Amino acid sequence: MDAQPLSTGPLPTFPSLLDAAARIRLHARVTPILRSDALDTAAGAQLLFKCENLQRAGAFKFRGACNAVYALDDAIAARGVATQSSGNHGAAIALACRLRGIPATVVVPEGAPKVKLDAIAGEGARIVRCAPNMRARDAAVAQVIAETGATLIHPFDHPDVIAGQGTAAMELIAAESGLDAIIAPVGGGGLLSGTSIATRALSPDTQIWGAEPEAARDAFDSLASGELIIDRVPDTICDGLRGHLSPRTFALIARDANGILLADEASICDAMRLVWTHLKLVIEPSSAVALAVVLGNPTRFSGQRIGIILSGGNIDTASLHVLLA
Amino acid sequence: MDAQPLSTGPLPTFPSLLDAAARIRLHARVTPILRSDALDTAAGAQLLFKCENLQRAGAFKFRGACNAVYALDDAIAARGVATQSSGNHGAAIALACRLRGIPATVVVPEGAPKVKLDAIAGEGARIVRCAPNMRARDAAVAQVIAETGATLIHPFDHPDVIAGQGTAAMELIAAESGLDAIIAPVGGGGLLSGTSIATRALSPDTQIWGAEPEAARDAFDSLASGELIIDRVPDTICDGLRGHLSPRTFALIARDANGILLADEASICDAMRLVWTHLKLVIEPSSAVALAVVLGNPTRFSGQRIGIILSGGNIDTASLHVLLA
């Protein structure tokens, strides 16, 4: 790849994943790995689902948030943590800060679903509303930090967050040997980056694939062109995958992952229904894209043993209606 | 209790549960036990959910079906198994017979949901349709048995089925010590009977409660009156709990369980939504009644450590709409 040098900041390494695993052990769940004969038959492959929808706060995001919050020195932690997220990272930060006993402030754009606000507020975090654009959001976060001295923990562009997310794949590989591939959804790229670091270290022969909605294919196109694309506004049911990579996650994924596979919106909804029906799990649309790319690429994965990271289960009623359509 | 002597046939004992656990070990899943801070707060108690919705074929029924199918002598098994069930037992028998490599015939009344028929047929069982009344059903089963020499495995009035169902509570008690109570839904009483036998043997200080829809309170009234009630046609969303006890399950439950608690239909739907939202699990309405009785009896269970058996996850679209209501 001929990308120009990027300013990535420090890239997390496998030892930082080991630190993360030790740091979150008392707080995060070792989530179960489930499977289904019917889904294996549908895929023509053996599928092992790492159920991060059963993680605390309903998504893998708690791993990274917990690691980053507990990695702070006491004096810095005491001033609190700030983040911007209308989604799972906000609730994860709120929970991690409650557990550590420090203040959390989450900047949330106007128009965010009430269910997400309730999840953040339910963990005791302060919510600051802002206009629904990036400039207003960044200004609000800067103001919180200026006023409180809080530390910013970004949803994915943060080495401790990436290291924490990688612990899901560490558990998957420890429990299931001989995986031919591991597949994780890609939005900002924190989960896929952490998954790649874990997999390259622990199971170097296992392929690593990102799964992305066709309607939000900025990571796919970034890898293909070698240039990080950040200027799109994707329209996909996968609300957790509308973000774009950062220079850091782009560099990690370009180095370690085998590539990105795409799935259209209809196949993502079908995959969500299949998980509901056969695994009896509530997952959010962003989680379903990984199964969708397996089912959409039968030749590539035929006969393989595949780990799939089900990233989260925080679905709102609108998405639920999709299941009934 | 002043009940007249009942013809119960042999009552399973704890050693038969140990046999069952050994017999099904290679086939059934040790299902995960999940919990949620939000549900603990809602209940004012510590709730440990034994997730039989994640069992093979989507319900605890596979434990009893598998035990009964594998308990058959080879020569008898070769002639196949017959049962009547439009629900989870039919699919469980079909799967168990497929695994053992013997024929299964399931008698299903006209009008049964297509999703259930598909589950049974998907495991390779023969389906025989009959008119939707008990006489036609019994006649159809008798004809299958006369023609094929198949062995009848009843959905709950069978010692090996009851013993198999008890293995869920065995796993729960082995994993979680110091339970104040275990709660299981009651329809025909197979699960509650097996649960009672396991609990009395392994954790004698733990209370055992059945959970029953108010709209199908035949077990509650049978225990209260001392007389087995079999002549009602209940109207409840809990399609798995519309049956009545048999003399055998009545005797076991009257002897070993602490009692039955009731929940109305609205509270059952609320409980199903709570499990969806906080445990991220798809459960069928019949499973939700156990949580509903905990939430409906806060004084009784306040501060306790409670095992709840989530019995199954085979929900149809009609029940799914309830979640959106």
UniProtKB/TrEMBL annotation, chains A, B:
SUPFAM superfamilies: Tryptophan synthase beta subunit-like PLP-dependent enzymes. Residues 24-312 form the Tryptophan synthase beta chain-like PALP domain. GO terms for biological process: D-serine biosynthetic process. Transmembrane segments: none annotated. The keyword Phosphoprotein does not apply. Its cofactor is pyridoxal 5'-phosphate. The keyword Lyase applies. InterPro entries: TrpB-like_PALP, TrpB-like_PALP_sf. Belongs to the serine/threonine dehydratase family. This is L-threonine ammonia-lyase. It comes from Solilutibacter tolerans. The lineage of its organism: Bacteria, Pseudomonadati, Pseudomonadota, Gammaproteobacteria, Lysobacterales.
